[in-house]
Amino acid sequence: MFKDIHYNEYTKEFLEQLPKGVFLTVKDGEKINTMTIGWGNIGVIWSKPIITVAVRYSRYTYDLINHSDEFTISIPLNGQLKKELGYCGTKSGRDVDKFKECGLSAVKGREVDTPVIGECDLFYECKVVYKQAMEPATLDQIIDEKCYSNHDYHVLYYGEIVSSYIKEK
């Protein structure tokens, strides 16, 4: 069902889908949540393959990721799940079970306790190796005014990619 891949084998596809939305999933004990993200990066830091994601303090995901210190990224590559990405980007896991509401399946992770979303095609499992709260005073003023007029800043999470795989057709 799944085929292991080198973490950078589908970087182009990941980065092309990211602005359209991908799923960031976290699990803390029995609590599981997924949210849509459109910002992030993939690369090498500290000689490790890293995905960087940004999570706002106000998000339910923020509480979960800080307790679990891991996350998964699930990426639809064939234009599917647009409605689900929209829903998961506008509803809070504090209020609704996004998996149930969207009919998404939580598939057990291979190396982490956090699941991936079975309806997607490309998957990354990550363990947080560093987190950094944004320092508003060092942010470009134009970006600050455009993206943070409500002062709801992000924490950046650097996740070491411990497993990457694609769904076999």
Measured as a percent range, the helix fraction is 10-25%
CA distance, first residue to last residue: 8 Å
- What's the CATH class, please? Mainly Beta
Helix segment tally = 5
GO molecular function: FMN binding; oxidoreductase activity, acting on the CH-NH group of donors, NAD or NADP as acceptor
InterPro entries: Flavin_Rdtase-like_dom (IPR002563), Flavoredoxin (IPR052174), Split_barrel_FMN-bd (IPR012349)
Pfam families: Flavin_Reduct
Protein name: Flavin reductase family protein
Write the layout of secondary structure elements.
Blueprint: E1 2-4, H1 11-17, E2 22-28, E3 31-37, E4 40-45, E5 48-56, H2 60-68, E6 70-75, H3 82-88, H4 98-102, E7 106-107, E8 116-117, E9 122-133, H5 141-147, E10 154-167
Antiparallel strand pairs: 1-10, 2-3, 2-6, 4-5, 5-10, 6-9, 7-8, 9-10
Describe this structure in words.
This protein is α+β, with helices and mostly antiparallel strands and 169 residues long. It has one domain: Electron Transport, Fmn-binding Protein, Chain A (Pnp Oxidase, Chain A, Roll), CATH 2.30.110. Helix content is 21%, strand content 40%. The protein has helices at 11-17, 60-68, 82-88, 98-102, 141-147, and strands at 2-4, 22-28, 31-37, 40-45, 48-56, 70-75, 106-107, 116-117, 122-133, 154-167. The strands form two sheets. Strands 1, 2, 3, 4, 5, 6, 9 and 10 form an eight-stranded antiparallel sheet that branches. The protein has a two-stranded antiparallel sheet with strand order 7-8. The radius of gyration is 15 Å and the shape is globular. The N and C termini lie close together (8 Å). Residues 19-168 form the Flavin reductase like domain. InterPro entries: Flavin_Rdtase-like_dom, Flavoredoxin, Split_barrel_FMN-bd. It comes from Defluviitalea raffinosedens. Belongs to the flavoredoxin family. One of its GO terms (molecular function) is oxidoreductase activity, acting on the CH-NH group of donors, NAD or NADP as acceptor.
